[in-house]
Amino acid sequence: MPKTFDRTDWYDTPLYYDIVFDEDTRLEGAFLEAVSELYGREGGQRVLEPACGSGRLVAEMAGRGWAVTGFDANPAMLAFARERLDGRGLDARLFEARMQDFRVRGRFDLAHCLVSTFKYLLTEADARAHLRAVARALAPGGIYVLGFHLSQYGYAKRSRERWVGRRGRTHVTCNIQSWPPDAGTRLERVRSRLVVQEHGVERRHETTWDFRTYDASETRALLAAVPELELVATYDFTYDLAAERELDDDQLDTVLILRRR
Predict the structure, then answer these.
(1) The model scores a pTM over 0.85
(2) How far apart are CA 135 and CA 116, in angstroms?
(3) What is the domain extent for residue 182?
(4) Is the pLDDT assigned to residue 175 strictly greater than 90?
(5) Which residue of 112, 167, 185, 220 sits 20 to 30 Å from the alpha carbon of 92, by its own alpha carbon?
(6) Domain containing 40 — which CATH number?
(7) Spatial distance between the Cα atoms of 124 and 68, rounded to a whole number of angstroms
(8) In the predicted model, is pLDDT for residue 207 greater than 70?
């Protein structure tokens, strides 16, 4: 008999989510500093993270000496992020807000949002509103590092990714499955299944959601609608500064470097 999964929102279990995605945190932090130095404002060290989640990059950037502000829509994630900061003796400003209508005080030199969180904005209006809100938050010459997975229309098979992580006595296996993207609705269905082994007990959690889809031409059209931000470079999820790419459909894992005009 197949084992069942409890239907949950994995954002309500921040420890398990954090274990899955923590592996690249130092690499991402180094990349953010490098692209800020290369493309951004000279000497600025104020950073904003929309959808900061469990705070792994909040803490990473604070530990690198940046003045960090982050926000998220999930209170459990924010509580976990605050505990992480307190545990490391670090400081950051965190608050609850949505990506499409947040307001923040001051101006920032760098903003970033990685691992496809941007695709939770399911309408063009919300995507534009988010980019405009980020543009308002950036000082002229500041950059927004935006990473997400492009969609391959016409691909009929489901795609699968698997991560395994451990922290102390907690072991997490994460399997993510994506259904083929629909070019008509601009949506793709995604499912995450977590198998957690903790203190001798196994738990199984399943979360499903929709992402908005983008190919390269749709991404360019969106950016053209927000002229406050200019695309100055494109990379991928290897975060290799020596491997700049074109924005095209040959590489689906895409990191855009957008600069405030």
Answers:
(1) yes
(2) 19
(3) 152-212
(4) yes
(5) 167
(6) 3.40.50.150
(7) 28
(8) yes
Inside any domain, residue 1? no
- pLDDT tens, 62-96? 999 999 999 999 999 999 999 999 999 999 999 99
Strands (E), the chain: 6-7, 46-50, 67-72, 93-96, 108-113, 138-149, 159-167, 170-178, 187-198, 201-212, 229-235, 253-260
Structure tokens at 182: 């629909």
pLDDT higher than threshold 80 for residue 1: no
Closest C-alpha among 58, 2, 68, 35 to residue 147: 35
**Going by C-beta distance under 8 Å and a sequence separation of 6 or more, which residues neighbour residue 128?**
222, 225, 226
Please give the average per-residue pLDDT across 207-230, as a whole number: 98
The packing angle between helices 124-137 and 216-224, to 10°, is 60
Interacting residues of 168 by C-beta distance below 8 A, sequence separation 6+: none
| Residue 252, CA atoms < 13 Å, CB-side half-sphere | 9
Mean pLDDT of the residues in the chain: 97
Tokens of 228: 């406050």
Diameter of the chain measured on Cα atoms: 60
Do 132 and 227 belong together in one domain? yes
CB contact burial 226-253 (16+ within 10 A = b; e otherwise): beebeeebbbebebeeeeebebeeebbe
